Every structure is written in C-alpha cells, then in structure tokens.
Amino acid sequence: MKTNKIIWGILLLFMGSVLLLENFDVIEFYWRNVWQFWPLFLIISGVAMLFKNRENNISTYISVSILIISLLFLFYKGQQKPKESNWFDKNFEDGIDINIDDKPQVKEFLFEPFDGDTTKKVIFNITGGGTSFYLDGETDSLVFADISRKKGRFILSSVKTATENTVNFKMKEKNHRLNFGGNQNDVNLKLNTKPIWDFNVKLGAGEFKFDMTNYKVNTFNFEGGASEVDLNIGSLLPNSYVNIQSGVAAIDIAIPAQSGCRIKTNTGLSSKDFEGFTKMENGFYETDDFEKAKNKIYINLDGGLSRFQVHRD
C-alpha cells in the first residue's frame, strides 16, 4: 500500500475517533489547541513528499511513526483546557517570550445615521480578518462602531434606495502577514433595533459574538475559516434564516424557547450537538413543536471540521 494512502487513512481515523469520543462525552477536546500546532501538518506533508517515490517498508515505517507521534502529541494537547477564551490567543511558558508586534491598539469610532424610516430593510455586510466582532447594545444611529485596531483600517459606507439601505463595514487594508498574537482588532458594534436586518458576514479568522434577541433578523449569512461564532437569535419576526459555512470553527447558536426550529446539515467530519431536536431524514433536525410554532427559525449548517451546537435558551 502507498505511504500517502496510509497517512491519509490514519489522519481520517484520528479525526473521526476524536469526534466520536467527543459526541459520547468520553473526552473534551479543544480543537483550538490543535490549531496552534498547525506547522506539524507541514512536517507530515513534507515527510510524505520525501518518501513519495520510495515505496518500501523503511520509508513507510518512518512516515507512519512520525505521524503517530505527532497525533499522540496533538491528542494530549487537545484535551488540555485553553487558558484563553478564543481560538487564537497563546501563552508561551517556560521562559519563552515571543512578541511579534507590540504596537498599541488605535481607537476609532465610525457611525452611519438612521433616517427614521422603519419600513426599509437594512443589508449589513461585514468583512474582516484577525478581528473580534461583538454586538454591544443599541444606538439611535443606524450603526455605531467602536474600534480598537492594530492592523488595517476599517471603513463604513452605505448605499440607500427607496426600499432598503445597504451598509458595508470592511477592512480597507488587508493584512497579509501571519498573526501569532491573537486577534489584532476589536470591533464593538451598536445597531438600531427598529429596522429589519439582513446580515452577510465574511470572517477569515477571528471571533464573532452577536446577541440579536432584540433585533428583527430576517437572514444571517456567515462565511468563515478558523473562527469562533456565538449567536443568539430572537423571535421578533415570523421567520428567520441562518446560514453558516465554516472551515475549522466552533459555532454556538441559541434560539428562543418559544420558537420552532429546523436544522439542515452538511457537516462532513464536524461534530453536532442539537439539544432538544429530533433527527429527521436526510440530515434534517426539528424541534417537536416546529409545525405549530408561531415563529420559526431555519438553520443551514455547512462545515468541514467544525463543532456545531444549537440549543434553546
């Protein structure tokens, strides 16, 4: 058997076993710890390439041994509770102090005024990387952003028509450097509660925590890579739609107890925890009162290697 096939087989076996043990509460595994040691996968790939054309017992033994040692190390590290609250903060102990960028954060405020027209729908497009986003209360403006940044610059702009406002909040300068110091930017957003909101979020890597229980959320679309997402959805509209596409992420969605909810999943090797839901056919899950509920929430989850949790408050 080819060495590459053995390596991929062991990797899939490792990830599947960890996810299975997690689902049965045998272990508690923190994938953010594994993410910190991502260069190990470069080493494993390099070894596989070195022995690609040397299909013999010795080369296979060396490649598999390095892989198993690396996975055992990741398995051990993955069960240690992180000291930080997000995926990307790291503490270096034993006298090692690595400071890639000690540049202080710059404070900045941006806002978009509210024209008072509550009949208009607001489309809010959010784009950023290496950033922590928080929904931090209400405002008389349409959008108010309290920004603390180290990298890049943010711009807030809008396009208005007779029926809707499109608001764009994005980084003006992209950061192409590797970031070893956690999220470089913090954005605290305040939004007006009167309009109906459509959210489109693209987050390369970072943290996104939105409590939207007091907002009229029609749709929430999220597309992200290595990220941590914490959402609270309200029940102020008859129907709300949540669409999540993620790579390596931790997704936690809270819904109101009085709302019915249907989940559609296409989650590959991701782990799922849907407390209070009944599994239907073809990857669907529903609350028992879904058909009779006055307010309904439709959630579509699409992820590669993520952890999805949906629960009622």
Q: Kindly state the mean pLDDT as a whole number?
A: 82
The total of beta strands comes to 17
Strand content: 35-45%
Give the number of helices: 4
Helix-strand makeup class? alpha/beta
Counting structural domains, the number is 2
Major β-sheet profile: 17 strands, mixed
Overview of this protein structure:
- This protein has 313 residues and is α/β, with parallel strands linked by helices.
- It folds into two domains: 3-78, no CATH class; 106-312.
- Helix content is 19%, strand content 42%.
- The protein has four helices and 17 strands.
- It has a 17-stranded mixed sheet that branches.
- The protein is globular and about 75 Å long.
- It starts with a helix and ends with a strand.
- 31% of the residues are buried.
Can I get a quick summary?
With 313 residues, this protein is of the alpha/beta class. The chain has helices at 3-23, 31-35, 39-50, 57-78; strands at residues 106-112, 121-128, 131-138, 143-149, 154-160, 164-171, 185-191, 196-212, 216-233, 239-246, 249-255, 260-266, 271-274, 278-279, 284-286, 296-303, 307-312. The protein is built from four helices and 17 strands.
Relevant terms:
alpha/beta; single chain; 19% helix; 2 domains; 313 residues
Write the topology of this structure.
Blueprint: H1 3-23, H2 31-35, H3 39-50, H4 57-78, E1 106-112, E2 121-128, E3 131-138, E4 143-149, E5 154-160, E6 164-171, E7 185-191, E8 196-212, E9 216-233, E10 239-246, E11 249-255, E12 260-266, E13 271-274, E14 278-279, E15 284-286, E16 296-303, E17 307-312
Parallel strand pairs: 2-6, 2-8, 3-7, 3-8, 8-9, 9-10, 9-11, 10-16, 11-17, 12-16, 13-17
Antiparallel strand pairs: 1-4, 4-7, 5-6, 12-15, 14-15
Helix pairs in contact: 1-4, 3-4
